[in-house]
Design goal:
304 residues; 13 helices; globular; mainly alpha
């Protein structure tokens, strides 16, 4: 039964969704806060491994695929941010969140993770709910930088989908702590060129917010995502990933008094319902398989 994988996927989405709060509270450039999110995330993971006696996991070669995925993590974040600078936020989000669907389709054809009819329905239902949350606003108005913004969002989509797929195919003998640490560290190092010549002044209060960004969306969000991707098919993770925008919307309503209309609330219900049903079906399938294994009659022994 994949209850653990389902819960970690949901938690990953919820913790990743807190990034907007820390970004707004600090007011620091996206490149800088992303750097500290990933760097402090790696630091918190190092503390965890030290306290649990697993620091030796850092001294293992993580494999090139893990390092490449760190690049994908950095690429996803930076191209997503650049897309929001050049086109509308709605456009950027709507394009980037096609990534779980794209990853599921790729896994269906090339990784043997076959999509059944119900999986397709639930993924599409979650995607439709997300579109409702964004009020179906896709702005294709003209503008000198509009096409470039769409292009950046498409690259971010590819990076996010690749991040999902590589984590599904990384050698399982590489411990989840090892792969998470090196993905976080590689992603952080990739951010340095974007702000090295113009590093901002950071106040004491902002250091606390940056530490929070490193702990919640950095350490916990990325770690739970990597753990979930080790346990769940791309289609299941892709459906549950839409809990992240729900968290963003709810936190915006609770903390920043951003109003939710009936269409957005209905979209939230679509996503939650799709995630609950998909989680139940995944857990039930795992339970049935386990029950079949336990009740299978062993072969009779014969005397030779």
């Amino acid at each position: 039964m994949n209850i653990g994988g389902i819960l970690t996927a949901i938690l990953a989405g919820l913790f990743m969704g807190t990034m907007g709060v820390f970004s707004r509270k600090t007011g620091i450039d996206a490149e800088v806060i992303t750097f500290f999110r990933l760097l402090f995330g790696a630091g918190f993971l190092t503390i965890l491994m030290t306290l649990t006696g697993r620091i030796r996991l850092l001294f293992r070669w993580p494999s090139w695929s893990v390092l490449i995925n760190g690049l994908m993590l950095a690429g996803f974040i930076i191209f997503y941010v650049q897309a929001m600078y050049l086109t509308t936020m709605a456009n950027a989000i709507m394009i980037v969140y096609l990534a779980p669907l794209a990853a599921s389709i790729y896994a269906h054809f090339f990784l043997g993770e076959k999509l059944n009819f119900m999986s397709v329905v639930l993924i599409c239902s979650a995607l439709f709910g997300f579109a409702m949350m964004m009020e179906f606003k896709i702005d294709f108005s003209s503008g000198s930088n509009h096409a470039l913004g769409i292009g950046y969002a498409t690259i971010a989509l590819c990076c996010y989908a690749t991040f999902i797929l590589i984590n599904r195919t990384i050698n399982p003998t590489i411990h989840v702590y090892t792969r998470t640490f090196y993905q976080l560290l590689t992603g952080a190092l990739c951010m340095i060129p974007f702000f090295i010549t113009d590093f901002p002044v950071i106040t004491g209060t902002n250091w606390l917010w940056l530490a929070g960004a490193g702990f919640f969306p950095g350490f916990l969000g990325i770690l739970f995502a990597v753990i979930a991707l080790e346990k769940l098919p791309a289609a299941t993770f892709g459906t549950l990933a839409y809990f992240e925008p729900i968290c963003v919307v709810i936190l915006g309503w609770m903390i920043f008094a951003e109003k939710l209309n009936s269409l957005q609330l209905t979209g939230c219900l679509f996503i939650i319902s799709s995630g609950v049903v998909k989680g139940y079906l995944t857990a039930h399938a795992g339970s049935v398989e386990g029950h079949q294994d336990l009740t299978r009659t062993p072969p009779l022994k014969t005397n030779s």
